[in-house]
Fold this protein.
Amino acid sequence: MSLARRIVDLASDKQASDIVLLDIRGVSLIADYFVISTAGNERQAAAILKDLSEKLLDEFGRKPLHTEGKPDSGWVLLDYGDVIVHVFSPTQRAFYNLEQLWAAATMTEADSIGRPQVFGAGVSLGMLAGILIGSLVTLWLGEAAIDLIHRMLDRLSGKRERVNFELLLQ
């Protein structure tokens, strides 16, 4: 957790906005935490990413295992193994809405001085988010998206129930 908290602090120091720490340990095997933040422009995104990379190497001896995206793409991901950092442009963050997608995770939202305020979300909220997202994705992508959403719901709920998205869309 100390790495994730430090990432929140560093992003805050570089004036990232809407910083959120998601504890995904109970809902995913890919990492323990997501740190999600918004950069107002490409230059700010580059500064946030540079500062994170340099200071995490100095303080923790950690380099990203993988980096995806560039500041001009609107979404950059730094994978530190146990912590995955997402730096978004405002439009890309609204589009991907990871907080909604990972609603079953426990969310910590940094306030204006960078001190976390903790909010909780249960599996039922995650399932609801999955159903809503599934309905929209099904409209956009069709039948292949239904299987993806079912797998997500199965994983969140631990059940094998199937949701009839077609009924929800009527």
